[in-house]
Amino acid sequence: MSATGINLRSLFQLQTLTKISVNYKKTSSYRFSLVVMSSGSAESSSLNRPRQVIKNVLAESQHEGDGAIVRRSIGRPELKYLDPFLLLDEFTVTPPAGFPDHPHRGFETVTYMFEGAFTHQDFAGHKGTINAGDLQWMTAGRGIIHSEMPVSEGINHGLQLWVNLSSKDKMIEPKYQELSSKDISRAENDGVEVRIIAGESMGIHSPVYTRTPAMFLDFTLKPGSFFFQSIPESYNAFVYTVEGEGIFGELNSTPVLAHHCLVLGPGDGLSVSNRSSKPLRFVLIGGEPIGEPVVQYGPFVMNTQAEIQQTFLDYQYCKNGFEMARHWRSR
Ligand code: FJE
Ligand code: FE
């Protein structure tokens, strides 16, 4: 393949767009011939530094809330904290089970429904329903008390992620960002479909504002497809498998089944392929580590023991953000 006439600028664009590995052979001054070393597979690129899986944690079922069952990955003893992520629960809940009135302070909760619906009500009168495909990104900040309950019989299935806030943001005013399924951008290419919850993929950006810089992508890969997703090098990142089986990181690694949390090591992105005969669904989540001490007492996450003590007092005496708690009960 001769590259005579190709300028170097477009060669670079070609490299970044198709992620092929190229060798330049100087044949005469200002003339280059182009030798393509490997196929157009993003997986085999020498230009990317794919992240490897450095830890694999099975999310085993446990009881939580009132009769609810969750598969916890981040937050369990083997994976207590993956800065800035405090918790990841895959929940499957049927009434009357649920998460009745409880408080939060110092972080954000992200609820993403796969199937069924949840209603939430908070002590400030905010309420709503999160249906299949919808997202609620709730910044608890200085304080929220709310209930989260399934709407109807049947399967109410989703993910809840807790994202820590830096010390300067822990006491901010609570805020909600709610996206219904139709408002979540979707992109598709070569058997790979992505819903962009936060961050960017396939050139599409989510409108969700993440106070702690973060990405949250929901991928579905058809059998035989593969993908390379860029991840900022400074982020901590992980995959959580929801359905099917996939090969992540190392090309010759064994396929990972559903309900596993794969912590990714350093590098600039994720290589994934589906060599099975069924669809693969997983979420890729990453965020800028905060690098501050974490003192957690259940739903209160602060930086010091003294701040936790203060939070107990604020909660008990309904002050510093918990004022509305005095006369409120969910209905
Ligand atoms: C909580 C116990 C809890 N995982 N997944 C203690 F159950 C909860 C809590 C949840 C939760 C809610 C949903 Cl909708 C989904 C969840 C735990 O509400 F926050 C504390 N501290
Ligand atoms: Fe909650």
TrEMBL record:
GO terms for molecular function: metal ion binding. SUPFAM superfamilies: RmlC-like cupins. The keyword Metal-binding applies. Pfam families: Pirin, Pirin_C. Gene3D superfamilies: Jelly Rolls. Its cofactor is Fe cation. It is found in: Nucleus. Fe cation binds at residues 102, 104, 146, 148. InterPro entries: Pirin, Pirin_C_dom, Pirin_N_dom, RmlC-like_jellyroll, RmlC_Cupin_sf. Residues 217-321 form the Pirin C-terminal domain. Binds 1 Fe cation per subunit. Residues 70-163 form the Pirin N-terminal domain. One of its GO terms (cellular component) is nucleus. The keyword Transmembrane helix does not apply. Keywords: Iron, Metal-binding, Nucleus. Belongs to the pirin family. This is Pirin-like protein.
